[in-house]
Amino acid sequence: MKKFYALLPFLGLFLIACEDDTPITETPGPEPVEYTSGTADFSNYVAVGNSLTAGFSDNALFEDGQKASFPNMLAANFSLAGGGSFEIPFMADNLGGMTLGGNPIAGNRLILSFLGESPSPTPVEGQGTTDVAVKLPGTYNNMGVPGSKSYELLAPGYGSVTGVAMGTANPYFARFSSSESATVIGDAAAQGTTFFTLWTGSNDILLYATGGGTGVDQTGNLDPSTYSRNDITDPNVFAGSLDAMLQAMTANGADGAIANLPNVTDIPYFTTVPHNPIPLDEATAAFLNSAEAYGAYNAGLAQLQQLNIITEEELAERTISFAPGEGNAVVIIDEDLTDLTAYNPALTNMRQATEEDLLVLTARTHIGTLADPNNPTSINGVAVPLADKWVLTTDEQDLVETALESYNQTIAGLAAAYDLAFVDANALLNELKENGFQQADGSIVDATFATGGGFSLDGVHPAPRGYAIVANAFIGAINAKYNSNLPGVDPLDYTGLYID
């Protein structure tokens, strides 16, 4: 045994010698990619828009969401080809709530709570520490202002703290506006911008839609100072506002990219709650169909149809009927039905929803609750019709679609006129809804509420993974227009749902 140990040093030398005599073949790695901006100049990139630009997610703006905004993703790509720093007006924390002089004015972000019978979006606990009365110093590259409409980006005083207190200004812009009289576009254009993105106009339609059509279509009214918050902006007001923005942003020769607007019917806020979620036992269905309930309403409608006050088609549309079991449609108020209350005050504008009607996401916690806590029969959506704000009817959808078509024609035309990269966000989000996007690991990112990875818990704004898909659409359009070769981002590097 001692002889064996004595041989070990010599054996080691032998092995080393053998290794030295063996040629080592190294496989060369891929040549490093040299990224170029093409004909664009990314050295001072400024992003202009609304909540979609700011990184709004889960019903709030908060620090992690701002970091996962699509402009911040673009800026990281631009840095590979001459892009400079990208400053963001960060919120003070990750809660998302805001105060004005200590008084809460906006709630916290949503998280998925598992405390009830089923998971549901719930505001995260705590008090947000972002006080909009405290101005941030300096200038910022992300000029996304949540809640802004197109014409508001041009409005002097839109970032006034005093205006916030009066309800005439925007609390997000108040934090980083250059002065009490500043405009968003003025502050953006004053930065010596060399490249910009502009994505605005969604709120000019969306607030009407998410309000269940409770606003007014202002087509023909060229004075936005007379509009209410949930109104649809006149197409000419939108076109003039967008043109003025592009004039300002391109005045010094900046290039850029502009996106059109998605259809609201493609977002989970309108595709999650079914029109027929009501289960009934046989006795309850029979009572609802009786003369003591909707039977009398149906009979009154039939009498007026016999008098040719309403058509047979409207009689069929308004007749309310329930059946035992699952799948009963909710009862809704439809203001576009013929007003029959002059003939009979009980014949209000009621009907049952159809699959063409879009119930808003927030209706999911309203349907089935009691309108009167002391009356166990006052069930919302059954004995008590859902108010207009809970449903976007087909007539209201038509108004949204008409405005959207006009806005998107304007955006495409101005993109061509100003020689900008054009991003078809409408087609992108429709694809996200219809088919989703397959990722490198085989997973699919789609528009399914809470689980699809594309949208956040508010059902309107993308999740970080969804924003990454948006960023790649911008990068594709920019590469095609300016002959750059930016690599894009990997959506799997971003979460599909924030876990608190």
Key structural traits:
disordered N terminus; alpha/beta; 15 helices; 500 residues; globular; 32% helix; three-stranded mixed sheet; five-stranded parallel sheet; Rossmann fold
Describe this structure in words.
It comes from Allomuricauda ruestringensis (strain DSM 13258 / CIP 107369 / LMG 19739 / B1) (Muricauda ruestringensis). InterPro entries: SGNH_hydro_sf. This protein is α/β, with parallel strands linked by helices and 500 residues long. It has two domains: 45-271 and 395-493, 3-Layer(aba) Sandwich (Rossmann fold), CATH 3.40.50; 278-352 and 358-392, no CATH class. The chain is 32% helix and 12% strand. Strands 7-1-8-9-16 form a five-stranded parallel sheet, with helices on both faces. The chain is globular.
Can you identify the CATH class of the largest domain? Alpha Beta
Q: What's the total helix number?
A: 15
> Into how many domains do the coordinates divide?
2
Per DSSP E runs of 2 or more residues, the count of β-strands stands at 18
CATH architectural designation of the largest domain = 3-Layer(aba) Sandwich
Going by helix content, strand content and strand pairing, the class is alpha/beta
Low-confidence stretches: 1-20
Binned strand content: 5-15%
Q: What is the quaternary state of this protein? A: single chain
Under CATH, the topology of the largest domain can be stated as Rossmann fold
Largest sheet: 5 strands, parallel
Distance separating the two termini: 63 Å
Provide the residue-averaged pLDDT. Answer: 93
In spatial order, strands of the major sheet run: 7-1-8-9-16
The CATH superfamily of the largest domain bears the name: SGNH hydrolase
Instruction: Work out the helicity level.
Output: 25-40%
Q: What sort of overall outline do the alpha carbons produce when their principal axes are compared?
A: globular
Radius of gyration, taken over Cα atoms and rounded to an integer in Å: 29 Å
